[in-house]
């Protein structure tokens, strides 16, 4: 495309999403003092538009409205226009999304909100078409109507915005009431299980009809529920629900069978037609969840899927300096000659394309069978395309196929008279050729922003897979990413995390002129990652850094009056509300994960005030946990960990010794939501021995690597065989 003549001030930003709007005729400002001052000085309303770079409807609104010269003129004349990347500023996004959800009953992106010059919201919505449509008011109409209201009824508007803010403050407050204690875990776990069980799709797995999201938080809850109720019918059902869901997702079109990794969500009940963007936070959580599924079941399918996700991330979302990029877009150009991007163009196939790529006759199969025939049958490909028009409102996928595994290897093999092992090799060759053909297509846009929180989730994915699958290269990749965080997203002077950094010119890692400080979720997901990485690598420096960050998190975000942590720190006058996220969704809520973090931190440090804080968080969310725990499955899971007390599994031994490694392999291979692992290597001057004096009293028995299982710093009798240790970990 030719270089546009006009650019606005977003051209100076680093965020890929803001840069996508740098050539609009709209006079965009980034969120900041310059825009706020202009609004006050000129007494103008603010139009705030929030989105992210891989959001399909954000692209649509940008194309239809923000590139439109006339609409741009209306915006510039009447409003100060601000653009926010929600992935850079989740705090700003959350404040105004709370308003949009409260006033319109729905939310989503792009989010469009109108604010008074002092940043109070009074009108909002999501996507608006440029002109009026049958069921939707147009963006131009809304802009002109709001500008008119400001001229005619300014005082009423200001008064109304103040009332709205007060109502939001009341609605969004989460705090402990009186002398509340943490809710009883048996009831919370039981209710959460019942609520998930009744929303479960028996045929296809998952927890709704459509759209269907991967929601690893639900699956992790079910694994923990099973671990605590292994012998009951409910426990068995919990495990079956989780494993069936993971299998159906792995076979579905939400899983990219050619390019690996998972798309964002499925638009239908069958996990078939996805929204095609791929997000880092999904890959990180799903790699960990599939690794746990393998730990529990021993089924190689789950190990294969975990490895498939990590291959995709290593190849396509990794920066050479060690960090992980945020996302890949859903939309791309179908061919190098195309003028228009289409959703899913990079990932879908016409039947004749597949036939042309796989024409080889298959020896030993039914007469005349080609590799294309076998592939087309196994992956549900249809000559006229396999996407229902209902799931393709814009006709972007007409005549195309989203690959989905329709039958087992055994069934496909029987149909063509092949051995399953041979069929597996043939399908692998088919996938390899399609992958090579796909590499010739224009790639979707890559969001090369690197976020501390999402990098934390991905480090956990690599570390957990490294332990469960006994693959050292995954642990090394996790360590490389953690070193990247320490180098690029941590300020050793202040001891604070930064939110984001960017891939700049010549592949260098760059920081924005005024770096964005880390939010609660950055601390929580990075601390979780460092604990996971310590257990996988037994490198004590990660543990030491995790505990330092936990102290900093307490200082910046803890609410000493109402308990639990605020999502953002105090002292930012442009933030009207300090909120506490109360939902485990695509990502778990930070307060949910931090409960387990605090219990792990206490186990590694002996600081019991962290256990007390964990209980206070559960008390603050008590009402929600008892009534609708399905909205907080990760926190519901953490109530069980809190009430059952973590077991400290201490291995005394030489880290290089084969006997030590064997004991560690045993611990890594067992799924136990209640364990923390530590290595007592005999170095009494080391970090762990200084934190936990009781370690000095634990000895190696007969000079062999010895395991102790301790609870509240009181230990079991020593064991020296992995079999005995396994028995203690799986009661």
TrEMBL record:
<dbReference type="InterPro" id="IPR008928">
    <property type="entry name" value="6-hairpin_glycosidase_sf"/>
</dbReference>
<dbReference type="InterPro" id="IPR012341">
    <property type="entry name" value="6hp_glycosidase-like_sf"/>
</dbReference>
<dbReference type="InterPro" id="IPR036249">
    <property type="entry name" value="Thioredoxin-like_sf"/>
</dbReference>
<dbReference type="GO" id="GO:0005975">
    <property type="term" value="P:carbohydrate metabolic process"/>
</dbReference>
<feature type="domain" description="Spermatogenesis-associated protein 20-like TRX">
    <location>
        <begin position="7"/>
        <end position="168"/>
    </location>
</feature>
<dbReference type="InterPro" id="IPR004879">
    <property type="entry name" value="Ssp411-like_TRX"/>
</dbReference>
<protein>
    <submittedName>
        <fullName>SPT20 protein</fullName>
    </submittedName>
</protein>
<dbReference type="InterPro" id="IPR024705">
    <property type="entry name" value="Ssp411"/>
</dbReference>
<dbReference type="Pfam" id="PF03190">
    <property type="entry name" value="Thioredox_DsbH"/>
</dbReference>
